[in-house]
Design brief:
- The protein has helices spanning 7-20, 23-35, 50-56, 72-76, 93-104, 120-133, 162-175, 189-199, 218-239, 244-262, and strands at residues 40-44, 64-69, 85-90, 108-112, 136-150, 203-208, 211-213, 267-278.
- It is an alpha/beta fold.
- The protein has a single domain (7-278), classed as Vaccinia Virus protein VP39 (Rossmann fold).
- Strands 1, 2, 3, 4, 5, 6, 7 and 8 form an eight-stranded mixed beta sheet that branches.
- β4 (108-112), α6 and β5 (136-150) form a beta-alpha-beta unit.
- The chain binds S-adenosylmethionine.
- The site of S-adenosylmethionine has 20 residues, from α3.
Amino acid sequence: MSTTFEPGWLALREPVDHRSRAAAAMSLLAPAWRAGGWSRIVDLGSGTGSNVRYLASRLPGIRCWTLVDQDADLLARAPAPNGAEVTRVVGDLAGAGFDAIRESDAELVTGSALLDLVSKDWLSALVGACRESGSAALFALTYDGAIEWHADEGDPRPADGPDDSLVRRSVNAHQRRDKGLGPALGPMAGLTGEMLFRAAGYRVWLLRSPWRIGTGDAELARALVEGWEAAAVEQLREATPEGSHDVDRVRTWAVRRRSTIDSGRFGLTVGHLDLLALPG
Ligand SMILES: C[S@@+](CC[C@H](N)C(=O)[O-])C[C@H]1O[C@@H](n2cnc3c(N)ncnc32)[C@H](O)[C@@H]1O
């Protein structure tokens, strides 16, 4: 049930993740960080440390990192930013993750590309753990369900057809499957997090951080088409045993979209949200 992530995939998405993150989240967080004299961070679902690399140069005086991930090989690749103490915890976010929040005295609990994998129960428990410890929360790059093709890079007009819609719907249904922490919120995770943190008395910002992909990101675009094809086919096969016509449509779609990418003229937007919650 738990999902594994290839280091190659994480490396491919990291530059696009970093350039897509909402700058406003840092403009809002940095003053609170400085004013509070904060210095300790827990990063949940760290992978190879993309979020560490992003935050280390943007928040001054980080003294302690606690990085939690179930995958020891990924975690071993995470950096140890200059001068900071780094604790790597190999374990599940439902147990070790909450223990880390309770035991680390962290003022900031964070994660990137994580919230769409979690269930509402897990997210409620996360909000409770943050509130108990008085920590702020920053969860970046939560997929929001939007996938839009464009005729060219920089052209905001959608150029989607019915098969693009079929793939998007099937992928989004697949996103709601259990990824190891209960039925996943998928595209609903950003809005659900906003609601739960607000109900817990936090000041909350939900900011757009879409991937805007073009010809310079062809390798990432190809990997997305491959992943979406596999997810959509799996979803359609299970949802409708008689759905072979739709499976054929997805296979044909993937061939067409690969040639769109190979043509060197395309744009692709994948919606993401960054959630910042500061104690009220
Ligand atoms: C999409 S990756 C994101 C990694 C990294 N934060 C980044 O932005 O590149 C999700 C990470 O969460 C970890 N993860 C997912 N479910 C987990 C669980 N139940 N317990 C611990 N780690 C988990 C995975 O091993 C993976 O490293």
